[in-house]
Amino acid sequence: MVTLFVVKTTKGGRMPVLQAAVDTTSTQYRDNVEVQQAAVAALDAQLEKVVAGGGERYAKRHHDRGRLLARERIELLLDRDAPFLELSALAAWGTEFTVGAAIVTGVGVVEGVECMIIAHDPTVRGGAMNPYTLKKNLRALEIARTNRLPVLYLVESGGADLPTQSELFVFAGKIFHDLTELSSMGIPTIALVFGNATAGGAYVPGMCDYSVLVDNQAKVFLGGPPLVKMATGEDADGEQLGGADMHSRVSGVADYFAVDEVDCIRIGRDIVTHLNWRKQGPGPSLPADEPIYDAEELLGIASGDQRVPFDPREVIARVVDGSRFSEYKPRYGTSLVTGWASIHGFPVGILSNARGVLFSEEAKKASEFIQLANQTDTPLIFLQNTTGYMVGTQYEQGGIIKDGSKMINSVTNSKVPHITINMGGSFGAGNYGMSGRAYDPRFMFTWANARLAVMGAQQLAGVMSIVGKAAAESAGREFDAEADAERTAAIERQIEDESHPFFVSARIYDDGVIDPRDTRAVLAIALSAAHSDHVAGQRGYGVFRM
Ligand code: COA
């Protein structure tokens, strides 16, 4: 007789469970929900525009030509019902260019492999690349490189946006540079060419490991017929210059000839199957049960006023597995909450601002915690809500600069994946210490109601006013209080606009604005993508200023 042993894992199950204390009947909670709902509605309205791309007229024209839209191509390419974490959706928001910047990027699953998808949107100015398209495209390639994600490039673009060529021409070369660099690192790159890939664009299939060209649609050439006529006088034919038939039989630029778009997508999926791809990081190792508190309540925690603090444990309790959180140094440096948890089974360390300001104790606690995570190869999640490091004579004399430097040293030299979420405010050097964009988090997202700037609008305008007054005094000029009030109000409005998440995301200072309720799902996809590469911490550090 065979004896069956039932092995019951208690790993991670012994962690303490957070007790949420938020009063969902309070006025404060209801006010918060109202503000967050309005912010999420504004986000949804923008995302609708993003999905519309170049609008109905151009979408219809595209369909009438028998072609699929960028998002339809992506949908067919991805595994059925697989999630797609779209990145930089609000690129170019508020600028002269269409929101979304004529390109769709994101992490999706193809044949069970997490890939970086980059798709031109030919309904927006022929899919031409403007300065925001370029930034978004380069960020997607950077995410592919740092997380070791194969790239699927869905090509159909009119090349450089000619009127703004001066702002993008030089750095557009980085796309081809990055594609071949990825290849040299063993990260596969696959070009699926559905349409125009002229001039510089022709180097996309050229630089990729694999290229698939669609018959009668793909046009891959350094110079089209008019340019060739001008340059050499030759009367060239488009198909002969750069069609799929020619490139697959004659030049060898195409590895595969696709009879139509669906065939091209099928071949693309088939190539992924043959990559023999294996993730190098460990898989989830802890129980992946849902939090015991409702994610819906995440709308009622952060206030609309960035100056009102909130307890980040209320957020953590609604994001991590089973709401389990083992807090580190809970009695020390209490305006930063640190501790261990897991998300969809991936162990993580979490650093989260509690009351906004970072004092010396918080900075030292963060430095220790980051080093501990690196010792155990544990990814770090930074939940930002900070007004920066404490100022004032007492704190300067206490060495706040030295301690802030320790924290920035730890964050900089940390080698485990960082994923950063701005939940409320990301101001001053707190943005740096809490792994802001300049500190290379693998992914960084912003809640729809958060703000990011060097300091709050009111504070910044106030500082400018004080500086102006002092300058007038030292120059012996009379201080014009009325003009100062006008200027102060104008600066405040300007900074308010510039710290808005749409403004921030438009410039790719983050990877997207999210609904707070999606935090767990977004973190899970980002974490899983990060485990495509080895997850290994840094054991040595830069010299700490003690
Ligand atoms: N820069 C700026 N705008 C461009 C553009 C570019 N490279 N390519 C196309 N557009 C604009 C067009 O002016 C047009 O604007 P409109 O609708 O306001 O009139 C819109 O995008 C759509 O272009 P259209 O030519 O009608 O679309 P199409 O689908 O028939 O053709 C292309 C698309 C890309 C094949 C065609 O526009 C083209 O050949 N563009 C120039 C390509 C080129 O030589 N690029 C230089 C590379 S460095």
TrEMBL record:
Entry's Gene Ontology molecular function annotations: ligase activity; transferase activity
UniProt entry keywords in alphabetical sequence: Transferase
Pfam families the UniProt entry points to: Carboxyl_trans
Name used for this protein in its record: Acetyl-CoA carboxylase, carboxyltransferase component
Domain CoA carboxyltransferase N-terminal as annotated: residue spans: 36-287
Family recorded in the similarity comment: Belongs to the AccD/PCCB family.
Domain called CoA carboxyltransferase C-terminal: residue spans: 287-531
